[in-house]
Structure formats: structure tokens, C-alpha cells
């Protein structure tokens, strides 16, 4: 393992060197793209609380969608989970909202079609999604159902000949205000099992309303969706999804991606704090010379390094096809908890300037709260791991 020319300051144990040369070229391409195309626009978009539609074209030019799926990207064969994770980390290192926009499309939506769709459905939708000519969204969470949605989904589907009629509501659905394809999950009134439906933009009965006044993830356009006698053809029902057990496979894979996003937020916050500590002077010297500031930086670096090591092994388990729900749940619970500590310590180093958007750290601090909660709260992921190690279920 040799030093890398432009290794991140937070990569204290040289994890990037685990990538192949070709993989690292992809990562560096992403890093440069985010620095030049996304970072200059982020704070203005965050302050306005809206997703710049121009980001879609920018991400399309990056040609990264479909990276995980063989045959749908310039990168062939399908990339390793280590590269996929590090690209999610790289995006969140600059802007967690942009990482979530891409993750919802490339992860939750595309993986739903890839994992749950028939070959015909994959051929129909995935090429356009990989090209980002069609943007996807994933509608699972409901106004009255978050962690308990598996057993208490209120959105219903009733078959009527060759169509399905959907009624209900979804909430916190990223990309839904502008998505071309929304994967909607509903409970079949006939057999009480959860099924997936691809709802195309403009379908009557589909009404998304943007959620306003958020304190975090302000660039992500989350929506509350009302479904009123919405008709979906049988051809748009994901043919390989027969129950929530099938949906759990999708969530298992994407939950690990959220942990990588949390690592990226940690790194971004740490880098900002380290640079600021070197420049900010108090009592005639840079605050980086003060012991208490160094203590905060070292604790942050420890959290980053430990989390990175955990996620490297998670990626290896994924590549080997032997990772389980509890593996991704432990990563999500642990890494997001460490992220919360790091963004707080980093904001502390900024003092009063830490609450001003101009210094970027306030954005990281607020966005971290969204990552901490979504794709399974810490408590729910803890219970998944707890059941695995004790053999006893503590779920109500």
C-alpha cells in the first residue's frame, strides 16, 4: 500500500489505496466534478430550500448512474461495493443533499427495478434511468407509518382487471416533486402482502406536495404524496416483489449506502474544522495550537477512521454476497452516531461562525440530523442487531 498523491486529509489509514487504479480514477473524477460543478451552487440552493434542476444535467454528464449494475454504465462490469460506497461518501463530503438525490435515484429507485422487476421491466426502464433521462423516486414512508410501515402500511392496492387502483398517502419522499418514475409500495387488499408499482409522471390521482420549512436536507425536495384512485397497469407492477420480505432486500443494500453518506458528512465537517483551526487566530496564535482544539480534531479523526474501516468490511461482505440485515443495520446505527459527534465537535471549533451558512459547517450540522433518522432510526437498527446477537426479538 503506497501513499496517494491527492489523498484526503481525513484518510489517515490510506483506505483509498484499497481501490484498483481504474476505480480510483472514477473516484477522482467524482471528486473533481463535485468541487467544480456542485460545491459553488450548494449554499445558495440550501438557503432557498430548493433542488436546482440544473443538477440533473450535471449529474447526467458525470455518467455515474448505473455504476452498480452491469451493462448500464461506462464502468463495466458492475463496480465493486467499495467504489460505490466511496462515491456516496465523496458526494456527501461536499453536499449530503446532492448525495441523497443521487442515492434515491441510483439506489432505491433503480435497485427496486433491478431487484424486483421482470427482465422486460428492467429493459424498459433501467437504460433511461442509467442515462438519467428519467429520474426515479421511492415511496415507502407514510404520514402515520415510518419504522412500523412493514406491518402497518395504510396505502392500499386493489386489482381491477389489468389495472391496480392505489389509495393512500406517502411522506418524506425525496425527488417526488420532479421524478419521472416513482416506485410506490402498497398493501394488496386481496392477500395483505406489500407490492411495488412504478408510477409514471403525470398519472391522474398522483399528487405530490413539497414539504417546506425543513431545517436540514433543504436541497432535497421531499414530498407528501396523496394517491386517489390512482390506476396503474399490471405491466407496471414489479413482477418479482411478492411481500415485504422482498422489499427488505432492497433496504438492506441501501441502508449501507446511508452509512457511507454519514462517513462523507463526517469527513466534510472535519476538513472544514481542520482548515478553519489553522487559519483562525486567537490570543496571537492559530487555534489549531490549542490542546482542546486538537483534542476535538483527533476524536473526530478517530470516529472517521473507525467508521471507514467498518464500511470497508461491509463492502467486502456485500461483494462476497454474504452480508445480512444486521450487518448494514450495525453500520447505519454506529456510523450515524459517530457522525453526530463529529459534526457537533466541528461546529464547536467554529464558535459563533459555526451557525453562519457562509462557513458551510452549519449546513453539515443540520443535514446530519436527517441522515441520523432516515433509512431506519438508530433505535430500530439497534433492535435488528440485538435480535441477531441474542436470538430474542425486542420488537413490539
TrEMBL record:
| Domain Acyl-CoA dehydrogenase/oxidase C-terminal stretches | 247-389
Which terms are listed as keywords in the entry? FAD, Flavoprotein, Oxidoreductase
Q: Where is the Acyl-CoA dehydrogenase/oxidase N-terminal domain?
A: 20-132
Q: Tell me which InterPro entries the record gives.
A: ACX4-like, Acyl-CoA_DH_CS, Acyl-CoA_Oxase/DH_mid-dom, Acyl-CoA_Oxase/DH_mid-dom_sf, AcylCo_DH-like_C, AcylCo_DH/oxidase_C, AcylCoA_DH/ox_N, AcylCoA_DH/ox_N_sf
Report if keyword Flavoprotein is assigned: yes
Please give the PROSITE patterns that the UniProt record associates with this protein.
ACYL_COA_DH_1, ACYL_COA_DH_2
Q: Which Pfam families match?
A: Acyl-CoA_dh_1 (PF00441), Acyl-CoA_dh_M (PF02770), Acyl-CoA_dh_N (PF02771)
Describe the location of the Acyl-CoA oxidase/dehydrogenase middle domain by residue ranges.
Answer: 137-229
Cofactors (names): FAD
Stored PANTHER family: ACYL-COA DEHYDROGENASE (PTHR43188:SF1), ACYL-COENZYME A OXIDASE (PTHR43188)
| Family listed | Belongs to the acyl-CoA dehydrogenase family.
The entry's protein name is Acyl-CoA dehydrogenase family protein
Amino acid at each position: 500500500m503506497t501513499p496517494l498523491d491527492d489523498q484526503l486529509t481525513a484518510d489517515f489509514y490510506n483506505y483509498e489505496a484499497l481501490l484498483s487504479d481504474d476505480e480510483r480514477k472514477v473516484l477522482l473524477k467524482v471528486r473533481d466534478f463535485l468541487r467544480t460543478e456542485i460545491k459553488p451552487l450548494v449554499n445558495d440552493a440550501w438557503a432557498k430550500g430548493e433542488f436546482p434542476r440544473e443538477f440533473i444535467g450535471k449529474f447526467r454528464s458525470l455518467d455515474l448512474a448505473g455504476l452498480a449494475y452491469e451493462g448500464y454504465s461506462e464502468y463495466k462490469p458492475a463496480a465493486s461495493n467499495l467504489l460505490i460506497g466511496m462515491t456516496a461518501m465523496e458526494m456527501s463530503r461536499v453536499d449530503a443533499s446532492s448525495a441523497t438525490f443521487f442515492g434515491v435515484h441510483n439506489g432505491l429507485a433503480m435497485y427496486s427495478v433491478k431487484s424486483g422487476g421482470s427482465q422486460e421491466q428492467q429493459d424498459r426502464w433501467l437504460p433511461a434511468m442509467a442515462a438519467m433521462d428519467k429520474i426515479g423516486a421511492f415511496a415507502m414512508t407514510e404520514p402515520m407509518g415510518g419504522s412500523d410501515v412493514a406491518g402497518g402500511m395504510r396505502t392500499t392496492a386493489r386489482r381491477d382487471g389489468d389495472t391496480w387502483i392505489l389509495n393512500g398517502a406517502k411522506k418524506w419522499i425525496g425527488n417526488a416533486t420532479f421524478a419521472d418514475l416513482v416506485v410506490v409500495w402498497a398493501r394488496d387488499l386481496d392477500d395483505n402482502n406489500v407490492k411495488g408499482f412504478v408510477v409514471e409522471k403525470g398519472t391522474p390521482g398522483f399528487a405530490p406536495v413539497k414539504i417546506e420549512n425543513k431545517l436540514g436536507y433543504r436541497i432535497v425536495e421531499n414530498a407528501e404524496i396523496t394517491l386517489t384512485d390512482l390506476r396503474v397497469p399490471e405491466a407496471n407492477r414489479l413482477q418479482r416483489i411478492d411481500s415485504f420480505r422482498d422489499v427488505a432486500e432492497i433496504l438492506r443494500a441501501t441502508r449501507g449506502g446511508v452509512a457511507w453518506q454519514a462517513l462523507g458528512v463526517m469527513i466534510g465537517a472535519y476538513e472544514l474544522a481542520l482548515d478553519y483551526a489553522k487559519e483562525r487566530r486567537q490570543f496571537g496564535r492559530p487555534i489549531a495550537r490549542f490542546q482542546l482544539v486538537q483534542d476535538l480534531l483527533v476524536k473526530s479523526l478517530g470516529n472517521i477512521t473507525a467508521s471507514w474501516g467498518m464500511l470497508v468490511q461491509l463492502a467486502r461482505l456485500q461483494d462476497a454476497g454474504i452480508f445480512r440485515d444486521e450487518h448494514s443495520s450495525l453500520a447505519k446505527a454506529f456510523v450515524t452516531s459517530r457522525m453526530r459527534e463529529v459534526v457537533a465537535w466541528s461546529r464547536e471549533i467554529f464558535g459563533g461562525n459555526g451557525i453562519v451558512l457562509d462557513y458551510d459547517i452549519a449546513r453539515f450540522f443540520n443535514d446530519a440530523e436527517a441522515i441520523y433518522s432516515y433509512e431506519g432510526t438508530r433505535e430500530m437498527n439497534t433492535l435488528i442487531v440485538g435480535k441477531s446477537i441474542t436470538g430474542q426479538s425486542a420488537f413490539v
